Amino acid sequence: MCYSDEAIFDSVIKIRKLRFLFSKLFFNWIEEKMKGGGDDAASSAAASASGPPPSLEWRFSQVFGERTAGEEVHEVDIISAIEFDKSGDHLATGDRGGRVVLFERTDTKDNVGSRRDAEQMDYSVRHPEFRYKTEFQSHEPEFDYLKSLEIEEKINKIRWCQPANGALFLLSTNDKTIKYWKVQEKKIKKISEMNIDPSKDPGSSSPLPIIANGVHADKPQDYLSKDFPFPPGGIPSLRLPLVVVTSLETSLVARCRRVYAHAHDYHINSISNSSDGETFISADDLRVNLWNLEVSNQSFNIVDVKPTNMEDLTEVITSAEFHPIHCNMLAYSSSKGSIRLIDMRQSALCDSHTKLFEEPEAPGSRSFFTEIIASISDIKFSKNGRYILSRDYMTLKLWDINMDSGPVASYQVHEHLRPRLCDLYENDSIFDKFECCLSGDGSRVATGSYSNLFRVFGASQGSTEAATLEASKNPMRRQIQAPARSSRSMTSVARRGSESPGSDANGNAHDFTTKLLHMAWHPTENSIACAAANSLYMYYG
């Protein structure tokens, strides 16, 4: 086939135009990456174009350790820590009795069964289901004789480490000691044969009864060395113990690999793994220490806020978290409501911060309770590391690490309790430390409250989602209509979620003895695990 010169020329022009267009798109993408937007900018643009995701309808999934009506809850059984691993296939809880309980997921495709069962299963409505895996005693109560101080066995934090060779690894800590655990399935070994055949005993004409420890019932324990005659050439019927490893039976064994102790003078409030898989940090009220998982007798102090004179102490560290991607960056919060982002490449002791995130105090709003309710009890990075979620007594705040002028969104959780701050101070409820969590895609945030309630908010731009749910088999009975909120922008902070003063979603008085302090969001799906006293509730949306 023959082409004219004009057709060839037109084809060349079209090819050049396409090349120019692709080059322009590529350089625009590079420019967005250099500005720090990257995938976040692309996802934000897509979200803006399609609008906020629809509100979720939360459903009950499972409960472990459910209480019957009137059943008394023992103090040692109350759950004090919850954590999913990165894959979402395992869940760990710690309690005040020093125990760690592990759960494993059962609804994965590997556990479905036959192909016909898989075809019949509707994966669009499938949600994570877990079963009990094992438990072990992580910490025991101790006593510091030098300081005359009792050390509780309560588990403060649990963090999963990278699995290896089919074994699970995790860190658990109480107030003073961090432990590194390995949990692995091992095949059960059984002893099938042992000792001497009594029917061929040359020292007796008739067999004697043998008791459980392998000796004759009517002879002393040391008769083999005194009365037993060994014939020349040995005993042909003597059989050594034979250990048989069964191929079907296995048992889970938890073994403490390392103990990281004597590094904190004050109570440990946080531990966090680095993305390098080799190091982790631990934080107490005044210091943050850096550890190597393989070295238990040495740590490096990277943050120290202890003043020379303790009378000059004005704030303490309340929480610390490693950046999920950059192993050189971490953030820690303080009792004054500020968050500091530090870069360990700057200096060995990170006295100065890279960025400071704090909300300016409104003029004329200061009171006796201002600093107490401003104290941040928990911080979490989003999965991509772009945002930090913080929880103080009154609110949830979402911070963009590229913007330190103020939070990009604020969610009212306990604003309706402001008239009752005096009562909360007298019964010490004002010092309760509520945790917070983000969904894997960063589109929603959640935190707990009183009366075993927890709240879920939409974090996408333009979202008005705000759900109040109860930790029970019917979570939606506490559901209320969410008030509209203004769109989130760089100049104005979105605030929503307020309720009627002094009451819950149904207008009932709050029960300050039942509080939902600990919760975790599944890393890849819309599933939440939360602790109500000794019960572990799981929900999906």
UniProtKB/TrEMBL annotation:
Region described as Disordered: 471-509
Alphabetical list of InterPro entries matching this protein: PP2A_PR55, PP2A_PR55_CS, WD40/YVTN_repeat-like_dom_sf, WD40_repeat_dom_sf, WD40_rpt
One Gene Ontology molecular-function label: protein phosphatase regulator activity
Cross-referenced Gene3D superfamilies: YVTN repeat-like/Quinoprotein amine dehydrogenase
A GO cellular component entry from the record: protein phosphatase type 2A complex
Keyword line: Repeat, WD repeat
Pfam family, one: WD40
Subunit-level organization: PP2A consists of a common heteromeric enzyme, composed of a catalytic subunit (subunits C), a constant regulatory subunit (subunit A), and a variety of regulatory subunits such as subunits B (the R2/B/PR55/B55, R3/B''/PR72/PR130/PR59 and R5/B'/B56 families). Interacts with SIC/RON3.
Function: The B regulatory subunit may modulate substrate selectivity and catalytic activity, and may also direct the localization of the catalytic enzyme to a particular subcellular compartment.
Family as reported in the entry's similarity comment: Belongs to the phosphatase 2A regulatory subunit B family.
Name assigned to this protein: Serine/threonine-protein phosphatase 2A 55 kDa regulatory subunit B
Organism, as annotated: Brassica campestris (Field mustard)
